# Entry
Amino acid sequence: MFESECRVNPWLVLRTKSHHESVVESVLQQKQVPTYLPKRAVVRCCQGRKRKVEVPLFPGYVFVRPSASQYEGMRYIRGSCGFVLASGRPAALPEQDLDAVKMLVDSGADFTVDPELVAGTKVRIVSGALSGVHGELVRIKNQQILVVNVDVVGSSVRVELDRGAIEAL
# Structure
């Protein structure tokens, strides 16, 4: 039964206004729409004090799983900007992708999210011996080491660089 529910009610991605993720999540929960808003802890300095606060892992987005009867009312949620679309229809998020996000958040591991730096992003090296050279980000080895593919003399060279040594184009 659970599998058939997943097919009928897939997870969707709802866009929100800036800093409205928790408000949207709260309203949807009051309407009994299943939601998931992954958060991570960060340290913020406020009036000379350091505080640990939770911020959305993906700012501007809330994952939702509305039933067919709840779907129409999703347009009128305060702070909501509509669904992320693919081919003119709300884009369904694969269950395994959401499970992976949940596992990451629940693990307590220290991580960062950089939406500019994903595999395939064109980058420019801004420091070091290869400063000024353009390449393509192949993968992120860990939080500080990036693997960049650089075309040199018709051959491809993979270089490991620190995060601060590149910028997205």
